[in-house]
Design a protein that fits this description.
Layout: H1 9-32, E1 72-81, E2 94-103, E3 106-113, E4 119-121, E5 128-130, H2 134-151, E6 157-162, H3 164-172, E7 176-180, E8 184-190, E9 196-201, E10 204-208, H4 210-218, H5 227-246, H6 254-267, E11 268-270, H7 274-286, E12 292-296, E13 305-312, E14 315-322, H8 330-340
Parallel strand pairs: 1-6, 3-12
Antiparallel strand pairs: 1-2, 2-3, 4-5, 6-11, 7-10, 8-9, 13-14
Helix pairs in contact: 1-5, 1-7, 3-4, 3-6, 4-5
InterPro entries: LytR/CpsA/Psr_CW_biosynth, LytR_CpsA_psr
Protein name: Cell envelope-related transcriptional attenuator domain-containing protein
Family: Belongs to the LytR/CpsA/Psr (LCP) family.
Amino acid sequence: MNWLDKKTGKEKRKIVLIALFSFLFVLFILYKITPASLVEIYPSQKTENAKIERKIVFQNIPLLNESEDKPLKENILVLGRAGQGYAGGNLTDTILLVHISQFDSVKKSALISLPRDLLVRIPESQSWRKINSLYALVGINGLKNKIEEITGLSVDRYIVVDLAVVEEIINLIDGLNVYVKEDINDPYFPGPNYTYQTFNLSAGWRYLDGPTALRYIRTRYTSPNGDFDRMTRQQQVIQLLKQKVLALNPLWDFPTYLKIFDSLNKHIETDLSILEMKTLYQIVKEIGADQIKSGVIDEKNTELLTGGQVPLGEQTASVVYPKAGQENYSVIKDFIKKILE
């Protein structure tokens, strides 16, 4: 039994939330150490073109309210994808809506996870697709509108992260020395052209290059605790990554700093400012484990969905959709409302 098995459900939710915002805060630190003269300010981009050039965006929007005497409610859409050069690189297989609230000094949070295989109608179209393909088809605004339609919650901010950024930066610093707690044997790791590959990694100290480290933080199907184990590995690698980057010599390793900045700039899209990332991280650290709730909109645990095989284009795909009927999200909205209350 590993340490995570001993944790309660509340403690595990706390670990997931801290891991998520630890990742964002480390990106903030890496961005912070880049010389200010190299940082350019870009205006907000509202185009729906999925081929938009992705950059870290600074917008003239109010900083998250840190005052304890004023209510705060923020819904942040967090999307994760493999990135360019990987199978399904444009598919947002991680879709997480993070709700953070603060009132009378009481801070709370909720994590709402949506399944990547949810069948949805493409906005302003009669065509149907899995929700993980909407970002590539209709852009971030189209996806945000669909998330709002499904959940009944407004999407105030968003973050899109390519996991490829982890591989690139680890390669730039010549790998990481990682302690692997238990043997990993995943025969279902995604391969090229929608195939599977076997990923094996023995327990103990292992020196991981970028590609291996990326597999290490993405594998999940054979882990005892599934996504919780994966989040723990992600937090472990991010902390090691932060330590090694901050240990670089600002003078002799200056070219490496530039390459790290370029990689971050290519692989992150958000309308959160650097200061807002920092503020969110500070708020999250102060939220007690008993103040973090979670809801997984799925077929197995909540029984909100049903599923089957449907034709999508020239292929037959496995999908899920509301039991109440396709595009009928009333029960899902009620479920989320109870979580937030």
